[in-house]
Structures are given as structure tokens and as C-alpha cells.
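quick one
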Amino acid sequence: MAIESSCDETSAAVCRDGMILSNITANQAVHEKYGGVVPELASRAHMQNIVPVVDQALRVASHSLQDIDAFAFTQSPGLIGSLLVGSQFAKSLALSRSKPLIAVHHMQAHVLANLIDDPKPTFPFLCLTVSGGHTQIVVSETPTAMRVIGETIDDAAGEAFDKSAKLLGLPYPGGPLVDKYASQGNAGRFHFPEPQIPELNFSFSGLKTSILYFLQNAGKSNVYKEENLASENEQRKFIDENLADLCASIQQRIVSILLSKLKKAALLTGIRNICIAGGVSANSGLRKAFEETGKINHWNTFIPAFEYCTDNAAMIASAAFFNPKVVAPLKLQADPNLSLAY
Ligand code: KG4
Ligand code: ZN
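structure w/ zinc ion:
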């Protein structure tokens, strides 16, 4: 059994020999009105959700606690209060059932979500992991030997989606809403600049600023000029009349930033097995453009099933399945910031 509670999803999964028997996730609507995750509220919601979520994961898998051979949990990275709920729960189960405890790194688990279903990538493979807190290009030599060769120097790709959505007046998390409106819009309508960042690293904070300026002057330019400032009503009207095109143009730029670095990574490493993972890999624009880029460049492309993209315990189970010997002592602490280095 695996438990995931690093941010604002409480999830439990049951896995047998690498096969997922159940994957139950409770989302937390409590953050919507705050425009982002409120850590204290997230911890409390995890405490409310964890028993019913674990219970349902066992029921769907048609198993009882007595059948479980090991308990896995997300150790890091994440919000410490959220991580503590899942880790203490998993430790309690392991202690009470006298079974091994397996600690999992959340970012490694996102990558290994690609090994849940067939077809699976063979090693070595590259993975672009794009989530609300991270944006990384990872070389995976084995399920446990992973090296980060590029990452964001400021915001994560998911944050770029969520913060852009917030500027457009959309509720949190805005990524899926941008995706939805973008499907009805013209991506070529508005032009947002591509940052020039060295090597395989990413930056999204400049994009956010240029969107902010563009909206502040109701579409006149990406550059801030006091004399161009539009009134609040004009700004709102501009957004309402152009929402789909704005979403499509913003999404296209985020996707092009991600894929241009992924292409560079593939060229530099010579690796042709290429995956995406993390919450943003649920984005339909990224999924489509990734497949097209893969075809043009003769890559073997892999995308996890939709339910294994955003935070879920099935990926934690998958990572635990590949790390069965890493038995954690009960005193092992949750950690908000462990890096993905082996
Ligand atoms: O991996 P994840 O569930 O949690 C973290 O580990 O951070 O990723 C959450 C992020 C959020 O920023 C959310 O807006 C984004 O993934 N996301 C999407 C979509 N679905 C989730 N972004 C764009 N399009 C989507 N369809
Ligand atoms: Zn995640």
C-alpha cells in the first residue's frame, strides 16, 4: 500500500507485483477561494481524508489491511505539515502490522509513473517532469539512478499556468482551466516572449510579468508604460472578450519553452526514449505537441495515463515496487526539501 500527501491531494493505492489494484485520490476544494494552497488547511484536510481514502483503496482492491506486505509513503519534497500526515499514518500502519516501511521521493515517483502501464520506456530514458512545484529534465539510468540535467531557476511550469490563470481571474488551480479554454482559442493571436536561459534550465517568471503588463494595458503591449494603463473595467472587458485566445497563446508559449529544452536535452544526451510526467503532463496542448515533436525527431514517446499525471499514490506504489530493499526505519522524518540525487 502507498500513501501520498505531499501537497493538497490525499491519495492511497494498493499495488501487487507492480500492478495497480486501486488508486483513490481526494482533492481539497478548501483552497479554491484563496488562490493557492494554504498549508495549514491542507494538513487538516489530509487528516480528515486519510482514513476514508485508505479504506476505499483497500475496498476497491478487494483486500484488507492484513493482506498488505509493505507500506510506502512520500517522504519528500512537499509541504511539511502535509507530508507529516501521510508519513505518520504509513508508519503507524507499518508498526501495527509489523511490516516494512518504504520511503519514496515524490519527484522520482512522478518519473516512474511512466512504468505503471504498457508500453513502458526502456532505460536509459529522459523525463520532463512538470508539476506545481518543480520543472526538471531527468536522465533515468535505472528506476533508482536518476540525474537532474535541467531545472527551473524560478517558477515551475504548473505555477506558470496557475499564476497566469490567476491574472485572468480564474480560480486555483488554474492549469486545467487554461487547458479547457485554450482548446477553443487561437494560439497565434497573442505573442508572449520566450526567455533566453542558458543550457537546459527553464525560467517562467518573465512570462508571468509580460502577461501581467499585457493585461494591465488591455492588450496594447507586453511592456509596462504608465500612460498605457487601462482602467479595471477595460482590463476585465479585454479578458472576458479574449479569454480563449489568451489561454491558448499562454499555453502555447509554456509548451514551446518546455519542448525546446527537451529537444536540446535529447540532442545532447542522444537518448531517444522520452517521457513526460507530473501534473502539467495532463495538459492536452503539451501532450499533443510532445507527441508531434516526438514523431518529427524519431523519439519513442511515453505519457502516463491521465490519473497518474497529477499527484497520486499509484506512482508512489510504483516507486516503492522498484525500491523494495530500501526499508526505512520508523524514526525516518518527512523532509520538505530532499533533492533528487542518488
Ligand atoms: O504534480 P502535481 O499534481 O502536484 C505537484 O507535485 O505540484 O501538479 C499540479 C500542477 C498544478 O500547477 C496544476 O495547475 C497543474 O499541475 N495542472 C495542469 C493541468 N492539470 C494539472 N496544468 C495545465 N493543464 C492541465 N490540464
Ligand atoms: Zn507532484
